[in-house]
Design brief:
It is a single chain. The protein has 136 residues and is mainly α. It has eight helices and no strands. Helix 3 packs antiparallel against helix 4. The longest helix is centred in the first third of the chain and has 14 residues. The radius of gyration is 16 Å and the shape is globular. The chain starts with 7 loop residues before the first helix and ends with a helix. 35% of the residues are buried.
C-alpha cells in the first residue's frame, strides 16, 4: 500500500456522503492513475459509479480489482452486490457462491445469498443456507 494512502478511502466516502459523486469519481480515477497496481481505487470507483447509476462500469471496475488482486474478498462481495442491484440476481448468486468456495471462513457471501433468496421469496433455500451456517 502506498505511504500516503491514509485518508484516501475516507475522503472518497466523504465526497459521496456530501453528494459530490463526480468529485469522488475524479478522485478515484486519479488514484488509479497514480497507483495502477492497487485494486482498492477500482473498488472505490465502482461504489461511486453505482451512486451515479452506472452499473456496467461499476461491474467492470470490480472485475479489474479482482484481476489485480484475486484474494481481495471485498471486491468479490462488492461485485455480487452490484450485480444484484443491477438486476442480475443469478450472476450475483454465482459470484457469492464463488466467494464461498474461495473464502469459506468469510460469512458475508452467505448472508448476501440469504438476502437474495429472501427477497425472491425462496424461503426454503434461505433457511437451508442459514442452517448450513449454524451447523457448519
Amino acid at each position: 500500500m502506498p505511504d500516503d494512502w491514509s485518508g484516501y478511502p475516507v475522503n472518497g466516502m466523504w465526497l459521496l456522503d456530501q453528494g459530490k459523486i463526480a468529485d469522488a469519481i475524479d478522485l478515484h480515477r486519479r488514484r488509479i492513475k497514480e497507483f495502477p497496481e492497487e485494486p482498492r481505487p477500482h473498488l472505490s470507483l465502482a461504489v461511486a459509479l453505482v451512486k451515479k447509476g452506472d452499473f456496467a462500469d461499476a461491474i467492470r471496475e470490480c472485475r479489474v480489482a479482482i484481476g489485480i488482486d484475486p484474494s481481495l474478498k471485498l471486491a468479490r462481495i462488492t461485485l455480487g452486490v452490484i450485480l444484484y442491484k443491477s438486476g442480475k440476481a443469478e450472476e450475483a448468486l454465482t459470484e457469492f457462491k464463488t466467494s464461498i468456495n474461495l473464502y469459506p471462513e468469510f460469512p458475508n457471501p452467505l448472508l448476501e445469498i440469504v438476502k437474495i433468496y429472501r427477497e425472491q421469496s425462496r424461503i426454503e433455500e434461505a433457511i437451508h443456507v442459514l442452517q448450513g451456517m449454524i451447523i457448519g
